[in-house]
Amino acid sequence: MLVFWEQRLAFLATPKTGTTAIEAALESLAAVSIQRPPLLKHTTLQRYRRFIGPYLEAASGSTFTVVALMREPRAWLGSWYRYRQREDLLDPAKSTAGLSFDEFVRAYASDPQPDFAAVGSQARFLDSKGGAGVDRLFRYEDIDSFIDFLEERLGCEIILPRLNVSPSASLELTPDTEALLRRALQKDYEIYDTLA
Fold this sequence. Notes:
- The protein contains nine helices and five strands.
- It has helices at 19-26, 38-41, 45-60, 73-83, 101-108, 122-125, 143-154, 175-184, 186-193; strands spanning 2-4, 9-11, 32-33, 65-70, 136-139.
């Protein structure tokens, strides 16, 4: 999460949406940069609205614009699957090594989810439980629009490095598993489909 005090702007780091590169490029411009631990780096909208937003607004006397990125849901889940294929993953229970993407999606849609498939959802990350949502939500696939927005708001050119890139892997699904994925991520697709 990054907070830009003068610009009254807060960037929430939706997992698996290029946030490591964004934070690396912009940390020096931010008044607050929370990159560790992951629980704080990936502060959800609900936690921001409950704890951080009210504090920032009380201290500054004005509201902050909250921005975030959202990735196409299948690609987002695919990024988690590929990320958890890394050989250097510390917790073997979270590894997807040896699994197909089809098996991973079926595990993600199961209840309860095994540890390797328990990755949450973007819809839950971006849900404020009845409160105000993110002020500006951008598609990860159109990151150039997000960068244009930031450059205008921050008054500088932004060049993103390539960081934290997951290994490549096949993301093939059977038609039945594709339908299961769309049901499991229905709310994510509803939000994503509203983005221009």
